[in-house]
Amino acid sequence: MSKFWSENTKRLQPYVPGEQPKFSNLVKLNTNENPFAPSPLVLQAMHDVVNGDLRLYPDPNADNFKQTVADYYGLQKSQVFVGNGSDEVLAHAFAAFFQGKQQLLMPDISYSFYPVYCQLYDVKPRVIPLDAQFAINSADYTGAVAGVIFPNPNAPTGCILPLAMIEKILQANPDCVVLVDEAYIDFGGVSAVKLIADYPNLLVVQTLSKSRSLAGMRVGLALGQAALIEGLERVKNSFNSYPLDRVAQAAAIAAFKDDGYFRSTCKKVIDNRIWLTKQLRQLGFEVLPSYANFVFACHVEKAAEEIAVFLRQHGVVVRHFQQARIDNFLRISIGTVEQQQRLITVLKELLMK
Ligand SMILES: *Cc1c(COP(=O)(O)O)cnc(C)c1O
């Protein structure tokens, strides 16, 4: 605490990201990064723009990247917004649509950055409990004033909400923005992008950090009707004209163009998820059905915290949340075959002795 801080700064409780260890021999399954490297074409595109032109500012509107995304999804360029990671895109959405308002509806178990942005942008959340199976019940999402926000698939549960249920939420809240955070949609879900034409209140947010292996480049995007995107542009151009640097724009374009690589790595993650789920169940874990690049699992006997500590001591990092309802669960990111085998070997040491 310092006398120099504003009242708002004193009140903040910042988001705490998962550990990024400084040594590399760990099996890192704690922050849902992609276990596979970016496409070779992405790395080549990045190399190609590392030259004297870096003295020049990047395209402030990232027009080529926006057009690439628009073509990919069959949208207009005016329906695409891009930012420095989807966390920044989410922040601008809070400022553009929710700031200063009451009744932002969100699940009780969800992405823990949302309550942080509520504090930063003076938004009053109304937290709605997931049901006993950790599913969103769309009928609970009525009476929003600021808007509605949830990840689909949800994090950290991995559960998916079918598009028909998302439509019910959109129809029940026509006068505010319903933000669907699709950070994990490419691992087996169906995107709500196809609903954009029918729903002026729908904003879909995506990231290149998970399914496109570019967490280190910080690229996120939002998709919606042009009026919503224009609102985001107003906020962005009041904050930072150049959120995406030249290298990031080149990487992002190439990541969307190399669709074959994208599909094959997503499939490998899904295959590894199936393997890991089966192995964990054999070891006495209850594993929620996951549509993401992680699983959410709870052991029938051993406490989650004890398991996490043991894994850490043996060089495997997973995520444990000290939060009501889920403090006996572990969120385990999908890794390579080798990483997952190491995890299972260490778990067997703990659970079968
Ligand atoms: C990882 C994640 C994000 C943030 O992604 P970045 O683009 O890396 O900022 C947003 N929402 C959810 C639900 C996530 O899990």
UniProtKB/TrEMBL annotation:
Q: Does the keyword Magnesium apply?
A: no
Pathway per the UniProt entry: Amino-acid biosynthesis; L-histidine biosynthesis; L-histidine from 5-phospho-alpha-D-ribose 1-diphosphate: step 7/9
Q: Does the keyword Transferase apply?
A: yes
Question: Subunit structure of this entry?
Answer: Homodimer.
Q: Which CDD domains match?
A: AAT_like (cd00609)
Cite the Aminotransferase class I/classII large domain residue spans from the record.
25-346
Task: Report the catalytic activity.
Answer: L-histidinol phosphate + 2-oxoglutarate = 3-(imidazol-4-yl)-2-oxopropyl phosphate + L-glutamate
Listed HAMAP family: HisC_aminotrans_2
The record's InterPro entries line, in alphabetical order, gives: Aminotrans_II_pyridoxalP_BS (IPR001917), Aminotransferase_I/II_large (IPR004839), HisP_aminotrans (IPR005861), HistidinolP_aminotransfase (IPR050106), PyrdxlP-dep_Trfase (IPR015424), PyrdxlP-dep_Trfase_major (IPR015421), PyrdxlP-dep_Trfase_small (IPR015422)
What are the recorded GO MF terms, alphabetically? histidinol-phosphate transaminase activity; pyridoxal phosphate binding
Supply the alphabetized keyword list.
Amino-acid biosynthesis, Aminotransferase, Histidine biosynthesis, Pyridoxal phosphate, Transferase
Q: What Gene3D superfamilies would the database entry show?
A: Aspartate Aminotransferase, domain 1 (3.90.1150.10), Type I PLP-dependent aspartate aminotransferase-like (Major domain) (3.40.640.10)
Q: What is this protein called?
A: Histidinol-phosphate aminotransferase
From the UniProt record, give one GO term of the biological process aspect. L-histidine biosynthetic process
Span-the-membrane segments of this chain are: none
Q: Which family does it belong to?
A: Belongs to the class-II pyridoxal-phosphate-dependent aminotransferase family. Histidinol-phosphate aminotransferase subfamily.
Q: Which SUPFAM superfamilies match?
A: PLP-dependent transferases (SSF53383)
Q: What is its EC number?
A: 2.6.1.9
Q: Which PROSITE patterns match?
A: AA_TRANSFER_CLASS_2
Q: Which residues carry this modification: N6-(pyridoxal phosphate)lysine?
A: K210
Q: Name one Pfam family in it.
A: Aminotran_1_2
Q: Which organism does this record belong to? A: Snodgrassella alvi
Which cofactors, by name?
pyridoxal 5'-phosphate
